[in-house]
Amino acid sequence: QGQLVESGGGLVQPGGSLRLSCTTSGFPLEHFAIGWFRQAPGQEREGVSCLVNSGGTTYYADAVKGRFSISRDKHTVYLQLNNLQPEDPAVYYCAIDRLPQGARAAKIRLGEALSSEDFNSWGQGTQVTVSS
After folding, report:
1. pLDDT tens digit string along 83-119?
2. Distance set, CA 50 to CA 4, 74, 122, 128, 132 (Å)
3. Per-residue b/e over 58-74, b at no fewer than 16 CB within 10 Å?
4. Which end of the chain is more exposed for a tag (fewer CB within 10 A), N or C?
């Protein structure tokens, strides 16, 4: 499915907002679930959000529920980051789910956390920094 490209990161004050984009050159994303992950220096990669195109099932990590929102169009998946907090800074990555959309939706409904091992075609990441 090729590489993904993340953009939209930056430096914001606590409470600020950013919109991250995950884009392909022309590969249609509607056939796959797309995940957003983040990784701070020295930390493990953390699953943040996921969108299943079929049925629109979404996943959000507990730490970002009510603040982050995932959406998509044909070639781009967005992650809206609102009310950013000091614990949110990291490099944010998007990736394509290796699992069928129905399987991912089932895992989300069961409350299963997002695992980076289920995803491939990682982008290079975009840096999000929160500072006053």
Report:
1. 999 999 999 999 999 999 999 999 999 999 999 999 9
2. 15, 16, 14, 18, 29
3. ebbbeebeeebbbebee
4. C
pLDDT digits (tens, 9 = 90+) for 60-83: 999 999 999 999 987 899 999 999
What is the spatial distance between Cα 77 and Cα 99, in angstroms, rounded to a whole number? 17
Long-range contacts of 111-119 (CB under 8 A, 24+ apart): 113/47, 113/61, 114/35, 114/37, 114/47, 114/48, 114/49, 114/50, 114/59, 114/61, 115/47, 116/37, 116/45, 116/47, 118/35, 119/35, 119/37, 119/95
